Sequence to fold (461 residues):
Amino acid sequence: MTLIKSISGIRGTIGGQTGDNLTPVDAVKFASAYGTFLKQQFTKDRLKVVIGRDARISGPMIHNLVVNTLIGLGIDVLDLGLSTTPTVEVAVAMEKADGGIILTASHNPKQWNALKLLNAKGEFLSGADGAEILKIAEEESFVFAEVDDLGTITYNTDYMDRHINEVLNLKLVDVESVKKRNFKVVVDGVNSSGGIVIPSLLKRMGVEVVELYCEPTGHFPHNPEPLKEHLKDICALVVKEKADFGIVVDPDVDRLAFISEDGEMFGEEYTLVAVADYVLSKTPGNTVSNMSSSRALRDITQKYNGIYEASAVGEVNVVELMKKNNAIIGGEGNGGIIYPETHYGRDALVGVALFLTHLSQQDQSVASLRASYPQYYMSKNKIELTPEIDVDLILEKMTAHYAQEEISTIDGVKIDFAEEWAHLRKSNTEPIIRIYTEAKSQKKADDLALRIIEEIKEIIK
Fold:
């Protein structure tokens, strides 16, 4: 059982001992710290916070605890109920709220949940703000409102539709072009919020939808991380239905993966590459992704004479660098699209609409579109952490071992070779070391990963 406290929020497993898991006590404690932080930031009498959740089983329990804690602090709550991470982000800005909380553990399995915290722009908190909230939580110096000053709660279940409207109104989204193509698409909503909002968006764009796991029960039918090994059902169904392609999202709908018409993975890394290809073809400019993302985005950006830069892993780091470098589009190689024309947050709805528009203007299939991009292959591995493992020592020794190569220590250790790379870092969301590698063939990527893992194991001995 696990509780991870980081600058981006609190994430943990349900049940068990307080302080070691995401128990009701921990949910109240960190909601109190966040509310207290907001009250310190703003001088106005009444604050408003937007709350939404994904469909996971523990959602209603954590949701009620968090909402009522904020009310107890004298903060008004706009409750979106079942929602998505990007929808809450959009709602914070549209409502001119003072903050937002999304109750979701994103790609983690059903026993996990989390409080993901937003600022008044609907963006994830800065590192400094996150650290301050953790400090407030440790001190537990909360002052709750007296009875006449309790917050109020307002319900609004229309925001997923409003979010769809915002996406369809984007200049680069061409609904009529998509409608003319009569696409047929299979959607795997992993029995969460995406099972509602993605089919709804597609139908508005004139797409025939085949739904798979689109009932928001919270009982995930497979591991909710949209990786190839978890997606055999949709890969088979795309072929069976003779669909143009398939769409997979994670439980909170900020990650997006496509399945080609032949039942093969388009590749999470290539979600951003394809969308960026379309966006840059219409509005040339700069791009940003994190350092664990494919080199293919760099290649596409340079094709349109833009500048590509890599940030540390984490949405807040990508967004910060995008703003600094005026990036037209950015995101993460896990299928996260960040398109500033709508908002600075990963958004699968935006990704779907832009990808459909791109495909509608191409005289080729999804598989042939994928084949048209620079070919890179990734291997994503991890090592479980135990208390006796010294991660800093591992990273230090690996840095020294590969000192003759191009090295970045902005986020863990990234080793850039001439035609491949390896990135080692401690996860922000799980007790693991992530080892990502990329090369020009799957075998080379896998071989590099195995070599790096063996070298780490020698250090741990």
